[in-house]
Each structure stands twice: as C-alpha cells, then as structure tokens.
C-alpha cells in the first residue's frame, strides 16, 4: 500500500521535558500521555516521578537514554541547557528551548506549549484564571495599604554561600504579593552569578523586614541566617520573620510559581502587614 505522504500527526507525540515546569504544565493540560521522559528534579506533579523515566538533571542529561525513547520533541530551559540541546540537535532531534525570565514570558511559554499540543484554548483559559487570581491578590494588597499598612522590604535568598538574590519572575511576583524586593536592580540579571551579593553587610544595610529562603533544593535554615555576624540588627532577624519557600514552588518558571509560590508569599506579607498595623514590629 502506498503511504500517504501528505498526512501528519498534529503536535509532538513523544516529548522529553528537561525541566519541571513543562512537565507540570502538560499534566495540567491533560497531555501527560505525550511525555516519555522527565528531569530527575521533577516533583510536581508527584505522580510524574512514578510514571515517567528520569533522563536528565539540570545541567546534564543522559543522551543515550533520551534517544532510546525516540522523542519527536525535547523541551528545555535557557542557555544553561544549550549544551544538551546542541548534542540532541546534532543527533537529529527537534529541540525547543524556552528562555522565560519574567511573568509575561512565563505566560507566553505556557501558551506556546499549549498550542504545540493542540490545547491553545484550554491553555489560554488556564492562563486567564491565573491572571484573575493575581489581580485579586493585587487588590487585596491595595486595600491593606489603603488601611494604612506599609509594604515589607523583602530579601529573597536563592542561595546562601554566596548570597544570591531573587531572579526576575520571583521579584515580580513578590511585588504582586505585597512585598518590595530589597535588590530590584539585581533581579533583572538572568544568571545566578550576576545576582551574587558578595558583601553581606549590604543586605544588613538594606534592612529587610522579611527574609525568604529558597536554596535551590537545599533546606533553608533560618537559624543559620539569624546567627550570621552582624545580622542581629536586621528587622527580619530581630522579629523572627525568616521563612522558606520551597524551590519547586517558586524557582521553576512555570505554573507553580504563579500559583503556589506567590500565594505563600502573599500569605506571609499580608500577615506581616496586619501585625505591623497592630504595632508588633515597633522598635
């Protein structure tokens, strides 16, 4: 029988996701059956770890295992995975590397991926639902400020040694949630090495009211932060306002940060505003 040379299957059918956010988004879209391999760092959704082969870390991948899965599309993130992408392209694999660093770029990535798998309408609906929730969050913050509250100054520590401050989407979500990033000028830098704060006294000088830690998968230790030399006069330390936001909830540039991560920050900031209004943090 002569094959139909004009037929094709819409969208990729055998996808390898080198990072967690594309895996989570495809599961939310009900398209998990297309995924044949995932990153070993994937924890969202939890069932993905049980259902899908783990074929990569973040900076490295098992190319032979990926090829054995016969993917028709590999999804990755940023220049940090450029080497993996180049290896796979040379082997003839279609690779899409997203490079989202802001809230708007995350939404754009989510829409593009939804469209790739034939779920543009559902993807847009889900994005609009997230936007509605974020706007409601902004409204709640505005109401609290109108009542006389002030926004807390927040230091988000992405790594402890050396100190690395928040990346752009985290800083933007922090603002929506009700806080002011202590290092907004560094948030625009895409690479961690560009957001290093070499001198910890600069953090002390900026006097954060809240310190959030998300140490890239390593457990945040507030007691270690509080014990740093010279940090005892930092308001966040003095008033015990040191909290962890787990990495999978905030450091993956995908749906988790726009939902769970920002919601946790909002809860903490609103609680701080309420306590501040009540005079709890007066010197």
Write up what this structure looks like.
The structure is a single chain. This protein folds into 2 domains: 15-119, Rossmann fold, CATH 3.40.50.1980; 126-277, Rossmann fold (3-Layer(aba) Sandwich), CATH 3.40.50.1980. It has 13 helices and 11 strands. The protein has helices at residues 20-28, 46-51, 63-68, 82-90, 103-116, 120-146, 168-177, 184-187, 200-205, 222-226, 235-238, 247-250, 255-277, and strands at residues 15-17, 35-39, 54-56, 73-77, 95-98, 153-159, 163-165, 180-181, 196-197, 210-213, 242-244. Helix 2 (46-51) links the parallel strand 2 (35-39) and strand 3. It starts with 14 loop residues before the first strand and ends in a 6-residue tail after the last helix.
């Amino acid at each position: 029988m002569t094959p139909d040379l004009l037929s094709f299957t819409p969208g990729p059918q055998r996808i390898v996701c080198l990072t967690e956010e594309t895996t989570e988004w495809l599961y939310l879209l009900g398209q998990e059956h297309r995924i044949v391999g995932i990153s070993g760092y994937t924890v969202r959704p939890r069932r993905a770890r049980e259902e899908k082969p783990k074929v990569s870390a973040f900076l490295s991948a098992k190319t032979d295992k990926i090829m054995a899965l016969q993917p028709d599309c590999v999804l990755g993130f940023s220049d940090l995975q450029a080497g993996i992408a180049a290896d796979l392209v040379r082997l003839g694999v279609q690779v899409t590397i997203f490079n989202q660093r802001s809230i708007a770029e995350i939404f754009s990535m989510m829409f593009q991926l939804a469209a790739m798998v034939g779920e543009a309408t559902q993807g847009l609906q889900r994005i609009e639902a997230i936007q509605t929730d974020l706007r409601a969050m902004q409204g709640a913050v505005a109401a609290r400020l109108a009542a006389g509250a002030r926004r807390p100054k927040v230091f988000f520590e992405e790594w402890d040694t050396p100190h690395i401050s928040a990346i752009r989407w985290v800083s933007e979500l922090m603002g929506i949630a009700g806080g002011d990033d202590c290092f907004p000028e560094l948030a625009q830098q895409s690479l961690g090495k560009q957001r290093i704060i070499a001198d910890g006294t600069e953090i002390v000088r900026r006097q954060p009211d809240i310190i959030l830690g998300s140490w890239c998968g390593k457990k945040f230790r507030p007691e270690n932060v509080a014990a740093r030399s010279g940090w005892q006069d930092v308001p966040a330390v003095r008033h015990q306002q040191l909290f962890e936001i787990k990495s999978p909830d905030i450091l993956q540039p995908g749906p988790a940060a726009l939902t769970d991560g920002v919601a946790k920050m909002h809860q903490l900031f609103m609680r701080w505003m309420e306590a501040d209004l009540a005079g709890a943090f007066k010197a």
